[in-house]
Structure prediction request, 657 residues.
Amino acid sequence: MNDGKALPEDLNSFPKLVERNARLFASRPAYREKEFGIWQSWTWGEARDAIEAIARGFISMGLAKGDHIAIVGRNRPYFYWSMLAAQYAGAIPVPVYQDSVADEMAYVLDHCGARFAVVQDQEQVDKLNEVADRLTSLERIVYIDPRGLRRYDHGNLISLADIRQTGEERRAETEGELKARIDSAQHDDTCIILYTSGTTGRPKGVVLTNANVLITAKNSCGFDALTEKEDVLAYLPMAWVGDYVFSMAQACWAGFCVNCPESAETMQTDLKEIGPTYFFAPPRFFEGLLTSIMIRMEDASPFKRRLFQKYIEHAKRVGPALLDGKEVSASDRLTYKIGQALVYGPLLNATGLSRVRVGYTAGEAIGPEIFEFYRSLGINLKQLYGQTEGTIYITQQPDGEVSADTVGVPSPDVEVRIGETGEVFYRSPGTFREYYKNPESTAETKDAEGWVATGDAGFFEPDSGHLRIIDRAKDVGKLTDGAMFAPKYVENKLKFYPNILEAVAFGHERDYCTAFINIDLTAVGNWAERNNIAYASYQELAGHPRVYATIQEHVEEANRSIAQDALLSHCQIRRFLVLHKELDADDGELTRTRKVRRRIIAEKYEPLMTALYDGSDSVYIETEVTYEDGRKGAIKATLEIRDAAVVTPDAQKVAAE
Prediction:
């Protein structure tokens, strides 16, 4: 296993990488952002100058080596520069989810003892002021956007522009100190603290070293031959380990360009304008994109729909084989080329994915049908498996060895083993040092030999040697008859359908499986408009009889698919209901990375759980909700509960014959 000595002395920290890139790629674009509809660009040379000026400004403010500095905002070059500037000054950046409520933000800043916070705008300043009495270590708030802050008390407020200007003005007197801090960086110094999403409790601060992050960046760039010529779109939360690795570590190691879209609303348009060559997105993105594609096709002319269906079916049959370099007949190749000219090419151009050379998805399991759809179009979409504690990379899929059912082979320098209970363990150069101020959890997760317990259950496929993840180990349960219950497997089958946004499956220590379902308001709303169905709210549309009938069709089709898996065929859904509200992170039902908090949902909706298993055909519930402005309210509903047809093993066998 790599011990960290693979990092050359001149490349063992982010500042040294930036300095190298400024020499080698001085005129190449390093960062782009779209603001007010216009793309702006900075070269590596320009970015280095800005980062150094901010770092000198931080030092002038009194930022000391080892201090923690919180970063709260959306993907913007100046936030990446602020993180790098903190590292230039020997400090430790701690990115925070920008959509965190004040209490969540206060916990992270108080726990890490942040002295400084760099925030986006008035909204974030207000959150920090709201919990100021709990932030005893916080001395200065650095803001980017001054709008709305003119009448605020500026005793502890300062703009990043002023810090940069101070750094430029005090260059001579801070130059020596800055150089000394850069030169003193070591591979085992703390690089960053990233807080977990907290699916089961308070987030934990994952301490990653320079070696953890940069050896992982070196290995992963080598695995996929990433170079300075790549373009990546930075749109995922900056507090998430994936964005830190893709948009910071790999970008600095390889020297490629990081592109920041204008907003979440314009992301799809900005994606088309940039046309990234290296692209990561969670399954939710690909599910949503497929939903929008199918909605557009529903609105297309009959001729276009037939054309689309004909060539998509052909692509599903031969596209993945062509992508993997396998043998395909000349006639199938010709038909695929025609489809590429008429359907696949225009479709990829419209989605912004036409230049993708390497694409990854992770974070949740992706539905096999969705995964194969994109690969059939010629997108080299692959899966990786990882964790914050492992600097994301545990396994990856090599080119030509891609499967929808597995997550690949161990990443370079990573060791993976399966424990006696089926839990996956790993150790690697990316293995985190510790959970900050939490030695008990550190000892529970990482043993003395460096093996980390993932909390996931899985096994290696005997033929390919690829890892297959079944579910979270704590979520894998058993029905009362002893059969295995894997909720995430069931949920992903359901979320393949564009009309279903989210699903939560239950069955542990129960006689059968059931599910809560969230409709996708965009997809179902579009369907309602085409069918002249009026509705006034999400709740009204979710409870419409025709919507229920459509969801029942999806559930029963998912059951037929589940029945084909000999290991998990008993996980078919017997009863379900459609929730009257969307699951929301502000209501504690999802994490900030949109992962289901299953235990909290089960407790919050206990009356619904009871009704699913006691034979009721309806149930009344009152639910507290959080509005965008933070106010609390309540919604009331009577929900219908439906039975779903299941496929018995004997019937499945007869159908197969």
The longest helix spans residues 302-323.
